[in-house]
Amino acid sequence: MNDQELLNELAAIEGMEVMEMLEEATFDSVAPGICTNNGCDYTISVEPDCSDGWCEICQTNTVKSCLMLAGII
């Protein structure tokens, strides 16, 4: 999946529109993050600048925050 598809999936999991999720994450100390491995939809709250967070499912450092996926950070 590309970054836009991951953003859309993460927003759907969070129950928000993409822009709403990005706005909330911009003004918070944590942001929603998602595993970037194909077929994995593991999500977790991460630091806004996270680009290599730990995925409990895949056992890899492949979790990115929504702000990183959107290219804001």
Summarize this structure briefly:
By secondary structure, this protein is of the alpha+beta class.
How would you characterize this protein structure?
The chain has 73 residues and is an alpha+beta fold. It has one domain. The chain contains three helices and four strands; from the N terminus they run ααββββα. The chain has helices spanning 3-14, 18-26, 66-69, and strands spanning 31-35, 43-46, 53-55, 60-65. Strands 2-1-4-3 form a four-stranded antiparallel β-sheet. A hairpin with a 7-residue loop joins strand 1 and strand 2 (43-46).
Largest sheet geometry: 4 strands, antiparallel
Q: What is the averaged pLDDT score?
A: 96
Unreliable segments (pLDDT under 50, ≥5 consecutive)? none
Strand order of the largest sheet: 2-1-4-3
SS-based structural class? alpha+beta
Estimated helix fraction: 25-40%
**How many domains would you count in the coordinates?**
1
Assembly state of the chains shown: single chain
Distance between the termini: 20 Å
Coarse morphology: globular
Strand content: 15-25%
- Give the H and E element order: HHEEEEH
The count of β-strands is 4
How many helical stretches? 3
Computed CA radius of gyration, to the nearest angstrom: 11 Å
Question: Which features does this protein show?
Answer:
alpha+beta; four-stranded antiparallel beta sheet
What does the secondary structure layout of this molecule look like, with pairings?
Layout: H1 3-14, H2 18-26, E1 31-35, E2 43-46, E3 53-55, E4 60-65, H3 66-69
